[in-house]
Amino acid sequence: MGSSTAIRELQRDLENKANDLSKHQKDIAKNHQVRKKYTIQLGENELVLKELDLLNDDANVYKLIGPVLVKQDLAEANANVRKRIDYISAELKRLDGTLQDLEEKQNSKKDAVCGFPFSCLIQFIIEVPCHMPQYGTRGLFSL
Amino acid sequence: MASSKGGAASPAVLRASEMEKMSVEQLKALKEQIDLEVNLLQDSLNNIKTATGRLETTATSLHDLSLRPQGKKMLVPLTASLYVPGTLDDADKVLVDIGTGYFVEKTMNEGKDYCERKINLLKSNFEQLIEVCFQSIFVLRMLRNCLHLEIVAQDT
């Protein structure tokens, strides 16, 4: 009976590892989503900046705040957009860093899970002959 | 905005010889990935198309507006079904939404110019994207062939 509890334990261990892996994969997917959002925002902001750069100095610029349009200085608007682009770029860089980190972790977890059945099998091979001698080690390997 | 969506690294340079070395599982996984990519690209292309269409209607209505004389009577839509009478005061100044909540006051000609520029930008993006899309579809076709051959080879 000792072998069946050991196998059950191994199973539980494998489940834990698999859960861990799927959690990581979810994290990575979330990271991708956030990054996509930021990339789109960055693109839009860059378009706005390009447009603002094309304007004359005396152009009237308004900012939509809630339901009202507030008149803004061109220089101020320019600075705001630039600041936002800087912020989004920094945020994207940070996300890149965490993504790399997460991917490394995921790979190590994947190895742990993929390497698992083999170690389980070895355990099985060691345990099995005492219960089912008719299979033996050689028979299992040819399975 | 749409140009940034094609960022996924496309394995479009895969050779047929490399595909032949792959197992059926690898081919299937790759096919799935490229399928997703093609779907994404087609979504982006559709988005660009609708955006171009909107800009084109804007450009025509601007042109329309510029032809009306000052003081022209018109009906202004307050909601989709409620219109109130009004008169055209100044058709030479237009307010253009340039994104992220910023509006710029432009003259009529500048406004038209803006629409034209945006349409051209979108069109060039569209062409770039369609090229990538064609490449992906080409790879997809090669993958399908390879997969088919492998499966036939396995059956015999």
TrEMBL record, chain A:
InterPro entries: PFD_beta-like, Prefoldin. The keyword Ligase does not apply. GO terms for cellular component: cytoplasm; prefoldin complex. GO terms for molecular function: protein-folding chaperone binding; unfolded protein binding. One of its GO terms (biological process) is chaperone-mediated protein complex assembly. The keyword Chaperone applies. It holds the Pfam family Prefoldin_2. Keywords: Chaperone, Coiled coil. Residues 85-112 form a coiled coil. SUPFAM superfamilies: Prefoldin (SSF46579). Belongs to the prefoldin subunit beta family. This is PREFOLDIN SUBUNIT 6.
TrEMBL record, chain B:
One of its GO terms (biological process) is RNA polymerase I assembly. It holds the Pfam family Prefoldin. GO terms for molecular function: unfolded protein binding. One of its GO terms (cellular component) is prefoldin complex. It comes from the Eukaryota. PANTHER family: PREFOLDIN SUBUNIT 5. Belongs to the prefoldin subunit alpha family. This is PREFOLDIN SUBUNIT 5. The lineage of its organism: Eukaryota, Viridiplantae, Streptophyta, Embryophyta, Tracheophyta.
